[in-house]
Description:
The chain is an alpha/beta fold. The chain is built from ten helices and 31 strands. Strand 29 and strand 30 form a beta hairpin. Helix 1 runs antiparallel to helix 2 (44-64) and helix 4 runs antiparallel to helix 5. The longest helix has 65 residues, at 111-175. The protein is elongated and about 135 Å long.
Amino acid sequence: xxxxxxxxxxxxxxxxxxxxxxxxxxxALPAGRAGTEAAPYxxxxxxxxxxxxxxxxxxxxxxxxxxxxxxxxxxxxxxxWWVLTGVVLIVVSMWGATxxxxxxxxxxxxxxxxxxxxxDAVKTxxxxxxxxxxxxxxxxxxxxxxxxxxxxxxxxxxxxxxRVTELYTKAADQLGHDKAAVRLAGLxxxxxxxxxxxxxxxxxxxxICAYLRMPPVLxxxxxxQSAEADGGPPDRRRPDARERELRALxxxxxxxxxxxxxxxxxxxxxxxxxxxxxxxxFWPGIDLDLTGAWLVKLDLIDCRMRGAGFGNVVFExxxxxxxxxxxxxxxxxxxxxxGTADWDTADYKACFQxxxxxxxxxxxxxxxxxxxxxxxxxxxGSALFSRSVFRGLAVFRGARFGxxxxxxxxxxxxxxxxxxxxxxxxxxxxxxxxxxxxALWEARVHTAxxxxxxxxPGWREVPSPDxxxxxxxxxxxxxxxxxxxxxxxxxxxxAPDVLDACSHAPEHTVGTRHDPSPEPAE
Length: 522
């Protein structure tokens, strides 16, 4: 902070000197027209012009010079020709001033006056030479002072970096400690280092993400393996039962450490849209890599990140992404959501292929600016897309809706592909708007008494040809055989597997309020 304050002070002084130089130059012009003299045979305009040059040079040096933090500029040794230039400047200034004044003295009509003026000319020339020598000495003194400040600044920078490195190393070591209290202390120490050292924030965030990617500490590993072999708890859709199971399997202190790590990320990535400027605790330009992590009740409401990876993440409890903004690609491929997932008015680029949503999923009123890719997604709980806007290709091929699937009043500007989708609960496309004919070919509907469904105009349920209790959807305006339009969502034979398809596909924006042209079908 002192280094920044000193550099700001030098810049302020430099600006003041530049203003003074401009003022001196402005006064020199009328003085030259008036022909006034600052001293005998010394025009006032020349003295003012010299003053303006000196002030301008010094001001530029103060405003633009000075060492910057971490700026290791090469130190150049003072060359011999600089010394020679200084000597020549002294001699030339002394000789030139004496010659000019002697020439002016010879124009005096009185002989006695000429002798007196010639003596004054020699004295003035020697004075000018001494002044030039003083100027050279002053420049050497300024350079010596600059070198001293430069050395001091680098020493302070090295000391600060060494101190930060020691704090970072000690805090990182604490994260591997057996006791939860020590791990918490390490997290908060890393947070403090990152808050006061912006250049280290991304590295510290990477360390916190790496901790969340590690498997949690289990209280009874044998019991956890038994539960996994049995296919999970009896009723994973009940949040209270799931939470009790977690508390029985996961070390409670480990849960608190992980929740604290998530809160640190949330607190420093949150910038509400109602705030004109970011808060002092906001960390801009941060990337999150939580691939394969185990997260508990993640809350990223109003958070802003440059990019994030949530592939194969297990979200225990709710997952909130309301009004979250991601500048780069955000991956959710293979993620598992055990609780409520909410993306209301989110703004980011995402891919949800093969994701699993075990709780309520809310995309209500979300705007998908480009392609929305939900291929192979399983919605165990309710899937709410009411009043959502799909401005590009919307792909739900092979998606499985285990409960409510509501697309009421949704708007599809591009193609809407629900081929091979499965609907087990109520479904509603009431008042949905389609710019192109929706494709629900080969979609299956599991029949059950008391379940109400409304399909897009022209589509209706017919008995399945295999004689099962399920029905299939056909377009009443077309043949009941193959679809009349080609399927743009069928991957080529040499395409990568489903989980890698997101990383090879073009970037797709979810939730932006822009109006790009719809993405062409692949």
